[in-house]
Every structure is written in C-alpha cells, then in structure tokens.
Design brief:
Elements: E1 9-21, E2 26-32, H1 37-42, E3 44-53, E4 57-59, E5 63-71, H2 74-84, E6 91-94, E7 103-106, E8 108-117, H3 131-136, E9 145-146
Length: 150
C-alpha cells in the first residue's frame, strides 16, 4: 500500500508512541506490520514512522492501534482550546477517527515507510540525529511526506 501524501489518511497497522523528547520537543509514532510468516521468515518488515516536530502537547496512549491521521477542523480546534487553553500557531493532529481525545499539537509532521529488521526497535531514520539509521535505511519509494508550516 502506498503511503498517502496528504493528511486525512487511515492506516490499519498497529501504531505506538515509541519515543519523545522534552528538550528537542519531538514525538515519534511507529506503525508496525502484522507479525506474519513473511516477516518471521524474512526477518524484516515495512513500518510507517511519523516524526512530529516542535511538539507542544501529546494526548494519547502509548499503544494507539490503527491510525487516522488528520488535522483538526475549526470546531474541533476550538473545543480543544476551550479545554486546554490557547494552542497558537501549531497543528492539531488527531489520531483516531471521530474523536478529539487522542492528539498531538506540533509544528509539523513528517512520515515515511521503511523496511526495518525485526523487532523494529531501531530509531527512526526520519530524525536527523540518527545518522547511521538515516544512511542505512532509505524511505520506501524514496518518499518522505510532510506538512507545510501551520
């Protein structure tokens, strides 16, 4: 399955929050492939990594399940602002369909698929601090997708 270029997509892999940082304000979600015979025999599988930058707030469980990545509309954004206060010039990325309970407020997000070895614990190649992974594992189809600045 080709990874969509635009927000508003659904992916049925099982997603987890695998890393986040306070000082550099980032968060990384990874969509894991089904652990089937092909993955076991080949020792690798295709993951979907999402690298959120300039993160202001994270509200989600560690294990998310299937992902519906979309930007909050004006009404959803206003509802969140009434709960948590001003959001400012940031994206509100919603992670589940028909819900505003799981979200990441950030300056942007990049996403790409990578073929990684089992057990899929390597750092994301999207993070420029992970030079070895970035040099070794290229995005599937050579494509890294990203939001524009908010």
């Amino acid at each position: 399955m080709a990874v969509p270029r635009e927000l508003g997509f659904f992916d049925d892999r099982s997603f987890s929050l695998i890393d986040y940082g306070h000082g550099h304000t980032y968060a990384i979600l990874r969509g894991f492939p089904p652990f089937d015979d092909f993955v076991v025999e080949s020792g690798e599988g295709v993951v979907l990594d999402l690298y959120f930058i300039n993160v202001q707030r994270i509200s989600c469980w560690k294990d998310i399940g299937p992902l519906h990545l979309r930007a909050a509309d004006d009404a959803e954004r206003a509802t969140l602002e009434s709960r948590i206060g001003p959001i400012g010039k940031k994206w509100v990325f919603l992670l589940e369909p028909d819900s505003i309970e799981s979200y990441i407020i950030a300056g942007g997000v990049e996403w790409a698929e990578f073929v990684l070895p089992v057990p899929f614990t390597l750092p994301t190649p999207l993070d420029s601090r992970n030079r070895e992974e970035a040099d070794t594992y290229q995005p599937v189809g050579g494509a890294v997708h990203a939001t524009r600045p908010y």
